[in-house]
DUF7144 domain-containing protein (Streptomyces violaceus), 136 residues
Amino acid sequence: MTTTTTRHRSETAEAAAGGLTLFAAVLLFIAGILDLFRGIMAIAEDDVYVSTPNYIFKFDLTSWGWIQLALGVIAMAVSAGLFSRSTWARVVGVGIAGLLIIANFLSIPYYPVWSLTLIALYAFVIWALCVVRREP
């Protein structure tokens, strides 16, 4: 009876791990697309960005655009690896989501509500990727 219970628990854990990894992959892909669009808007110097003159982490809007664009493309590429449930993609996914949280924190004065929204999305990605444990 112990073998059957262990096998059933293992199958349930495997299904939950697959679900969380898929959840993280979808969130990372969507947030990567949003960062890609945000980068394009910043490069084009769109008028949706707020001008904050006295912010300690002040950068040129075009520079922020290229940073957001590059990180968004990387996030979308890593999410493709997460769809195949690769271990390297989980590790890189946590790293890229962490970098994107920092980038969005630094760009809060330029687009505050959107930055906070993406910070929350990337925090969920990190949570979903760190909660999954592989069975030995």
